[in-house]
Amino acid sequence: MSSLHQTHKLRNQLHSILLLSAMLLLLLSLCTSLFGSNGLLLMLFASALLLFTPRASAWLTLRLHRARPLSFDEAPQLYRIVDQLADRAELPAHPLLFYIPSASPNAFAMSERGQPLIAVTEGLLRQLDQQQLTAVLAHEFSHIRNSDLQVMMIAEMLNRLTASLSTIGWIMLLIFLPLWMISDLPLPWLAIGLLLTAPLAATLLQLALSRTREFDADLEAARLTGNPQALAEALISIDRFGANWWSLLLPNRRQTSDAWVRTHPSTAERVRRLRQLAAEQQQAASPWHPFLTSAPLITIPAPHHGFGVWLW
After folding, report:
1. Is 214 a catalytic residue?
2. Catalytic residue among 90, 122, 140, 214, which?
3. Which of 86, 110, 178, 237 could be cross-linked to 117 through a Cys-Cys bond (beta carbons 3.0 to 4.6 Å apart)?
């Protein structure tokens, strides 16, 4: 592992720990300001309820995206890449592959009862070459390997608890407000301030954590493939598609610079870090090239085109 890789890795891990700790501290502060010493017990009870609350199944999410299982006969080359990546990542279970009939180049990882799932779109399979697609898949494998799905689930739980307690706090404030107005009791300004800021702060912390986990997945993908340049090129290609699509619908749209509300870091920053790694690895061993052949990744017929837009 290179020194630059170690530096980025430690920074990302520290950043994740600090962000989760900040979310937890914010929730504890809100609990104790509203309920005093009983706030911690209430928070633990609410956390247990959320943990055992039924969640939307990964299968439901896949169905909403019109995803279907991708068989080995339809994508033998893709399955070989996935099998090698799973072995290199030392995953206990190989992910199941799903195909989404969408022109937008995208991929995402999920988990259902310990079984990892990876969905890829038609656009991703058609637009990227084999090395770029391998890098994108390695990014999704890294999310699975780093337990990012579980980390973000915890962050989502903390965010939901903060929002729920804030709502309860406003209800309590409205109920007791007449009492405060006719008595000499001071208003709980600290609690009011937390009620105003806590939900937004928790959301911003969760988004920052998501961006950090994306950086870490990029880093691990570069380690898995030994080819950070391929992932950088894939990100540029995917970002270019998004820019072209929006430019057709909103030709006067300006690129947003509000990095606080993004779930993903900017493509420019991700590419810059990956190219730093690529420059450091120029003197290292050759990148991993899995099954570099001219065989197509998938045997599914390409969709029809109409006025430059894919029809499904």
Report:
1. no
2. 140
3. 110
